[in-house]
Amino acid sequence: MEIKGLLFDKDGTLLEFHQMWLKVSQGVVSALSHEYRNEMAHQQITEQHLLEAIGIYGDYVDNHGLLASNPVEDTAQAWFEMLALQTELKAFSIEIKALFNQQVEDNPLLIQALPGVKDKLIKLKQMGYKLGIATADTKAATLFSLAQAELLELFDYLGYSDGDITPKPDPALLNGFCQQCELSPEQVVMFGDTVSDMEFGTNAGAHKVGVLTGTATLDELQPYTDVILSSVADFEPELLAR
């Protein structure tokens, strides 16, 4: 069946991941350690413990960790349980989401499209493909970061994880792309840098292209993909035919 839709993860696939999200996560944890210093002392938790809970170990980000693959709500729940807070999880989750959104907006210069990605997306758009986003990020951060990277207007569909739709690897975001753009999953290619992205494509019945610009290695992605590329910038539609 002819490919008509290209769906992309955002961070690590279209945008630089490591520098941005290490800085953002460290900023959020710093703010948390100030506000909840008594709870952290009581539970004997350090800032490093909070970072490790979401898959950050120094400058290394675990491909299977919460930061790389999960929505903010999952990070909030992990920290909520670690801190043994007596408040409501929903209120804490809203607070964490706001902190992440604020940190993204406070670091606009770190938001950068990966080399060659913008030109590739423009070319694919001109070829007639429908382009979409499927990210674990929030709506506010997604809109802000894509606008900052000058990519926002290229997309026909924006799928984000803001608590109102089941996140990846559930197929809901890809189904939304198909519904909005009048496609079937077999007509879609999912691009991503994590195993979760590839599982998402499999669950939805789409084709899958893994890229090595994010957190996963070649060996981690290999069992789950149809094609592996160094970058989205290297994609050509003929690759799928091969």
Q: What would you note in describing this structure?
A:
Pfam families: Hydrolase. Belongs to the HAD-like hydrolase superfamily. CbbY/CbbZ/Gph/YieH family. By secondary structure, the chain is of the alpha/beta class. It is built from 12 helices and 8 strands. The chain has helices at 18-35, 37-43, 47-53, 66-69, 72-83, 89-106, 117-126, 139-148, 172-181, 195-204, 218-221, 238-241; strands spanning 5-8, 56-57, 60-61, 130-134, 157-159, 188-192, 207-211, 227-229. It has a 6-stranded parallel sheet with strand order 5-4-1-6-7-8, sandwiched between helices. Strands 2-3 form a two-stranded antiparallel sheet. Helix 1 packs across helix 6, helix 5 (72-83) packs across helix 6 (89-106) and helix 6 (89-106) runs parallel beside helix 8 (139-148).
Gross morphology: elongated
Q: Class by helix and strand content?
A: alpha/beta
CATH architecture of the largest domain: 3-Layer(aba) Sandwich
Q: How many DSSP H or I helices?
A: 12
Please mark out the parts with pLDDT under 50 across 5 or more consecutive residues, or reply none: none
- Subunit arrangement of the protein: single chain
H/E series: EHHHEEHHHHEHEHEHEHEH
Number of strands: 8
Catalytic activity: 2-phosphoglycolate + H2O = glycolate + phosphate
Pathway: Organic acid metabolism; glycolate biosynthesis; glycolate from 2-phosphoglycolate: step 1/1
GO molecular function: phosphoglycolate phosphatase activity
Protein name: phosphoglycolate phosphatase
